[in-house]
Structures are given as C-alpha cells and as structure tokens.
Amino acid sequence: LQISGYLNLLANTIDNFTHGLAVAASFLVSRKAGFLTTMAILLHEIPHEVGDFAILLRAGFDRWSAAKMQLSTALGGILGACFAICAQSPKGAGETVAWILPFTSGGFLYIALVNVVPDLLEEKNPWNSLQQILLLCTGITVMVLLALT
Fold it and tell me: Which positions, given as ranges, span the membrane (predicted)?
C-alpha cells in the first residue's frame, strides 16, 4: 500500500473532525443554522468521499478495505461534534461558537480558495474564468441570503 492512501485517510479524518465541529456548533446556534450547515457539508462530502475512495483504490487498497477505512474516518466527525458539545461554556453556546464557527468557516474558505484560485489563474479561456468567478460569487450570495433569512 502506498503512503498516499494513509496520508489521505489522515487528512480526511481531520476534515471530518472540522465538519463535526461546524455541525455541532451550528446546532448550538439554532436548528436552522444546524440544518443548513449539515446540508452544505453533505453536498460537499458526497463527491469528496467518492474521490477519496478512488485515491485509496489507486493507493492499493481493495474495495472492501477502502470502504472500511473511509467509514472509520467518519469517526473524526463524531469526535469533532463531541468536542464542540463538551467545549460548550457554562455561560452558554455563545461562548463556544464564538471561536468554533469562525475557525471552521475560515478553514473551509481557505481550502476552497487554495484549490480554486490557482486553477483560475492557469485558465487560458477567459469565458471559463468568468463562469468560475460568477459561480463563486453566486455561492457567496446564496450564503448571504440564507444567513439573512
């Protein structure tokens, strides 16, 4: 088995830990914020997990082992949620989410932009670059509109 498979599993566990933090902290804010965060993470995770599964297969894992290892990384999400709940301040959820939500949101934005911006800069076709920028702005607009409702 190649080391890239194990590195991918470690990265996926850390990623799932931050997802667990974000979901639990969002539910501490409100049910609406919790459900919106959960839906956003699910929409992100489905293609992400398929890609990670393919990485594990290319690293030499068989299908059953790759599936078991992918499932084991989901424990990172449960640990993250438990951590967020246990970190809840006696003063209330506001103390907890005051650092968890900015931490996870900043991490998600950083990862997204680190992956997107270099591709935008390498794009030769201006029409494709414009489409990608418009879609990025559309995503930000949707988030703002959901936050306002």
Answer: 69-87, 99-117, 129-148
